[in-house]
Every structure is written in structure tokens, then in C-alpha cells.
Design a protein that fits this description.
The chain has 238 residues and is α/β, with parallel strands linked by helices. It has one domain: Spore Coat Polysaccharide Biosynthesis Protein SpsA, Chain A. The chain has helices at residues 4-22, 38-46, 63-73, 93-97, 123-139, 156-161, 171-181, 205-237; strands at residues 27-32, 52-57, 78-81, 106-110, 117-119, 152-155, 186-190, 192-194. It has a four-stranded mixed β-sheet. A two-stranded parallel sheet has the order 1-2. A two-stranded parallel sheet has the order 5-8. Strand 1, helix 2 and strand 2 (52-57) form a beta-alpha-beta unit. Helix 5 runs parallel beside helix 8 and helix 7 packs parallel to helix 8 (205-237).
Length: 238
């Protein structure tokens, strides 16, 4: 709850810039069953700004559930997801959206891209994220360096056809994997991943590792079938 002034102080100026550039914007904040007064404080601080909508879960359901709630409520044609802990700079939303060219369906932040960087993030978290992304690169698309970032922009059409089930942090990799298997185009946005600026992480590392390994094991035959299909299409064109 103590981080709310910093969160709103950083995101509201970005809303102003987006509204000036695109003519319309909405911010959907998901309170995932907090019990420390965050929801009441959010409603108090955001009242009077019609661009901000606050949705709440009666109990904690995880990141994946929060994303599904936000996607279902959003009305725009381009949807941006971002962490609320300051690990990615909200000011980078406008330049990230510039990469959403007509031929691109998803733009995803990539601190592991050769032009990206990491600042102060604990080694164990990097090992988890980079290790998972390395396996996904082998299974799916090696040109994508990061599969786990929440900081992304999507076309509405992608989220209408891509269905994901993960309740927790695995959701980010699941969405990207399913989108790639359906043939959507992904572009990376090299950026800096910073140590969280406020709040405390609720991530359960052992559970996240287990979830990724189980999903990757199930993904393997589908990924191989997808590659075979692409090779056949290429050979027919040749």
C-alpha cells in the first residue's frame, strides 16, 4: 500500500502522453485479493480520473487470473500489461508502442536482448527467468530472448484467440508460446529490467520452476509439430 503514491505518480503522466498521442486511453488496475487496505486506498486516490478503472478479486488468485480479468474488461484495440513494482519504467510504454507496426501482433520487453540490460536484480531471479527463456528459445523461436516478461503490448485479436490456463507467473510464457504456435508475429523491445522499486515479491520460486518444466514438457511435441509444418510449407514454396 505504501507504494501507491509512487505507482500513480509515475503512471499518470504516461497516461497523459498516451491520451495526447492516441486520443483515448484507459488504465485498469487489478487488486488481487489484497488484505492490507490497498483496494480502499486505490479507490480513494483514483477517484475523479475517469481513465482509471479498479477491479478486485475477493481472494488472491494469481497473476494469470488477474490478466484474464483485465483482458476481459479492457476496451482498447491495443492492450499493454506491466508490473506495478517499478521493475520496468512506465515511461517506456510510448516507445514500446512504436514497435507495434502493422505486421507485428505482440511487442514484448526484453532485458536479455543484446541491446537490453539488467540492473540490480538478484542472481537467483535472473537464473530462473533466463533459464526458462533459454528453453523456450530452443522449443519455439530462438530470435526471441525473453519469454517471461510481463511488460508487453498485444493486439486485441491475439488475446481473443489465445487461451491460457496458468493461474500464476507461468501465464506470461504460456501466452507467448500459444501466440507463436498460432502464427502471430512477435517483436522485442530491448529495455532495462531493474530490481523492484517498491513492494514485496510473492513469487514462490520452486513452484514457478516446477510449473515451467511441466509446461515445457507438454509443449515439446506441439513445438516439434509446428516446426515440421513450417518446414513443409517452406519446401512447397521452394
Amino acid at each position: 500500500m505504501e507504494s501507491l503514491p509512487q505507482l500513480l505518480g509515475r503512471i499518470v503522466p504516461v497516461l497523459d502522453r498516451l491520451q495526447e498521442r492516441y486520443g483515448g486511453v484507459e488504465l485498469i488496475l487489478i487488486d488481487d485479493g489484497s488484505t492490507d487496505g490497498t483496494l480502499a486506498e486505490l479507490r480513494h486516490r483514483c477517484q475523479g480520473d475517469p481513465r482509471i478503472r479498479i477491479l478486485a478479486h475477493g481472494r488472491n488468485q494469481g497473476l494469470g487470473a488477474a490478466l484474464r480479468t483485465g483482458f476481459a474488461a479492457a476496451t482498447g484495440e491495443i492492450l499493454v500489461t506491466t508490473d506495478a513494482d517499478g521493475t520496468y519504467d512506465f515511461a517506456e510504454i510510448p516507445p514500446m508502442l512504436l514497435r507495434m507496426t502493422p505486421e507485428v501482433d505482440i511487442v514484448t520487453a526484453s532485458p536479455y536482448h543484446p541491446e537490453g540490460a539488467v540492473d540490480g536484480v538478484p542472481a537467483y531471479r535472473l537464473i530462473l527467468s533466463q533459464g526458462a527463456s533459454l528453453i523456450y528459445r530452443g522449443l519455439l523461436d530462438a530470435s526471441i530472448y525473453c519469454y517471461t516478461a510481463m511488460f508487453r503490448a498485444y493486439r486485441r485479436a491475439v488475446l481473443q484467440s489465445v487461451h491460457f490456463q496458468a493461474p500464476g507467473y507461468l501465464a506470461m510464457a504460456e501466452i507467448l508460446a500459444e501466440a507463436l504456435l498460432q502464427g502471430y508475429t512477435v517483436a522485442e523491445f530491448p529495455t532495462v529490467l531493474r530490481v523492484r522499486q517498491y513492494g514485496q515479491s510473492k513469487a514462490k520460486i520452486a513452484r514457478i520452476i516446477r510449473d515451467h518444466l511441466r509446461f515445457q514438457a507438454g509443449l515439446l511435441p506441439r513445438a516439434l509439430g509446428h516446426r515440421i509444418a513450417l518446414l513443409r510449407q517452406q519446401s512447397r514454396r521452394e
